[in-house]
Amino acid sequence: MRPAEGSAEPLGVGEVHSARGDVAAGPSSNAEVARHFQMLADYLSLEGASVYRTLAYQRAADTFRDHSTSVARLATEGRLRDLPAVGDAIEAKVLELVDTGTMRALEELRARFPETLLELMRLPGVGPKTARRLYETIGVTDLGTLRLAIDTGDLLKVPGMGEKSRGRLRQAVEALPTRPERSLLGVVEPQAVALLHALRALPGVTAADVAGSLRRRRSTSRDVDLVAASTDPEQTLEGFAVMPEVAGVAERGGTKLVVGLHSGLNLDLRVVAPASYGDLLQHSTGSAAHNVALRALAQKRGFKISEYTVEETTTGRAHRFAEEDGVYSLLGLAWIPPELREDRGEIQAAAGGSLPRLLELDDLRGDLHVHSDWSDGRAGMREMAIAARDLGLEYICFSDHSQSLGMGVGLTPDQVRSQIAAIRELDATLDGITLLTGTEVDILADGRIDLPDDLLVELDFVTASIHSGFSQSSEQIMRRLNAALENPHVDAIGHPTGRLLTRRAPYEVDIEALVRGAARTRTILEINAAYHRLDLSAPHARMAKDAGALLTVSSDAHDPLGFTLLRYGVGEARRGWLEASDVLNTRPLAEVRAWLETSRSSGS
Ligand code: DGT
Ligand code: CA
Ligand code: ZN
After folding, report:
1. Which of 6, 11, 357, 474 is spaced 20 to 30 Å from 57 by Cα?
2. Going by CATH, does the domain composed of 361-603 fall within 3.20.20.140?
3. Where residue 6 falls among pLDDT bands split at 50, 70, 90?
């Protein structure tokens, strides 16, 4: 598929996680305004206000959090009501907040209930009513006092609380997720790319790039790192500091700027003269582990690396590089793709001329995991097919869910049969792309596959996934995965570990057993490209490759924009050292069919 041009467009993925930043977000940054409205909404639900009132503030909070320019400024200019979910009352409250630093409505509620109760409301099984009852009957105000009440049994004095709810609450408190400190690649990247374009347009700038974890395509980032070469670094830094996305400046030096963005993310910008831009880009890309290893090697070869120069230790002679590869070649190394820079063997490979030729987005010819409105997708099959074709894909497989997924979205066997007919009919009307029949069938809690074998054989490509029973023991999970591996009609395992980045840990997969089993049974392991999954992860993908298993990079698209997620999957695959030959959907369709044919007839 063709790489998307300029990738700052919003992506069509379920929830968007905004990062929480703590540096430099001034009192009227969007993150702060959103936080106040969120608090007001939470307090109102605690007070027992109507859902409509609560929701109005909730929606305003969401709108402010996601807005890229200053909400406070819009309010003072009288333009805030142009935003969705904002009326007179809310605009007045924003102005009050900007003027006074708080809102009277919020202060009144604060005087009635401790703020820590709002955290309690987020516990599964608590909610506003219970939180209020806990407070008013036994004086629970926060997690600490709740824990105490659970342990001492005081909790049982609260009307409606029995041993059962006590056990459930104890579990909820223990499982409390720590607040995500890292933000998802798919959330960070569009913002970084937009700012990068703006940076490149500033006077004096001759080059600029994304650096840090984002350039290495890590699935999450702590902050955004940008670097630039400029004929006038100070002027460039000044120009950047007043960009509309910037909420506040935390730190400013001669080559460096640290700011908080309205989105809540923090951003580091370093700017140097063009002559040593390569040194800076190399340094700022990291990882820290890679840099440490590189510096150790440099020392052995008589050099000392800094972010500005490479110095000869004996003579003190300084080498500056405008391009990054100069640093590597001075040390006798081939240029190393950023995705590999984690000190996991890449320096040795670069020295020995054995770096992999990493997978590229352009190598992908097809997408074997696509949803439509037959199950939980948000677009019809025709619309999905045309979007895929527009991006240059040659084939896609519709993999809608099977009946046990729940909520009535999965397909019964009869519905799968109808969909097969519909896919064939649609395929006959479309040129330039081939539509394959498939399913994302549930691997049930007892290891059964949620569709009968005689139906599975009808399908071109069968992906089997776990969507339930996440808390099972490793033995139970592996029994289920093994059943899927051994089933001759299952071609691939979807999102094999079930992780949801920053939200849910993987279920208990024995990865070594899984990759060995996949290789032995010729079952493909998916790299699911949705940016909240990226599952298999890079280290696991590398293990799969080394075990001899074949992989796919699949979008799991639920709407037409979803195909653009493939680039995140490619990043994860590259971090896993994968080459095009390791990924089935880089192959022409005829070769894919031949491979599947052989696998299915080999029995497992
Ligand atoms: P992050 O922010 O946690 O997602 O990960 P990075 O890799 O972006 O880390 P960050 O932002 O702290 O630093 C950016 C780059 O700066 C990092 O990848 C390499 C370089 N760097 C940071 N700290 C050190 C260090 O202690 N030693 C060396 N050699 N380089 C460092
Ligand atoms: Ca960083
Ligand atoms: Zn799934």
Report:
1. 11
2. yes
3. very low
Query: For position 27, what pLDDT does the model report?
Result: 67
Closest CA to ligand 1's atom 13: 212
Taking the C-alpha atoms of residue 294 and residue 350, their distance in angstroms, rounded to an integer, is: 11
d(C-alpha 513, C-alpha 510), whole Å:
5
Q: What percent of the chain has pLDDT over 90?
A: 75
CATH of region 116-178? 1.10.150.20
pTM here is 0.77
* Cβ 284 under 6 angstroms from ligand 1: yes
Domain with CATH 3.20.20.140 in the chain: 361-603
- Residue in the structure block whose two tokens are 């009535």: 408
| Residue identifier of the C-alpha nearest atom 27 of ligand 1 | 288
For the domain made up of 183-272, give the CATH fold: Beta Polymerase; domain 2 (3.30.460)
- CA 215 to chain centroid, in Å, comes to 14
Q: Which CATH class is domain 278-352?
A: alpha beta
Tell me the mean pLDDT in the region 382-403.
98
Q: What are phi and psi of 576, to 5 degrees?
A: -90, 15
Task: Tell me the longest C-alpha to C-alpha distance in the chain.
Answer: 80
Q: Tens digits of per-residue pLDDT, 295-338?
A: 999 999 999 999 999 999 999 999 999 999 999 999 999 999 99
Query: What is the whole-number distance in angstroms between the Cα of residue 286 and the centre of ligand 1?
Result: 5
CATH 1.10.150.20 in the chain, residue ranges: 116-178
Q: How far is the CA of 226 from the centre of ligand 2 (A)?
A: 9
Domain with CATH 1.10.150.110 in the chain: 16-112
- For 442-479, the pLDDT digits (tens) are 999 999 999 999 999 999 999 999 999 998 999 999 99
- CA nearest to 1, candidates 442, 415, 460, 583: 583
Numbered ranges of CATH 3.30.210.10 in the chain: 278-352
Pocket flag, ligand 1, residue 186 (CB < 6 Å): no
Q: Tokens 């992780």 belong to which residue?
A: 499
Q: 19 C-alpha vs ligand 2 centroid, how far in Å?
A: 13
- CATH 3.30.460.10 domain residues, the chain: 183-272
In angstroms, the CA 157 to CA 546 distance is 58
282 lines ligand 1 (CB under 6 A): no
Question: Do residues 277 and 226 lie in contact, with contact meaning Cβ atoms separated by under 8 Å?
Answer: no
What pLDDT score does 52 carry? 81
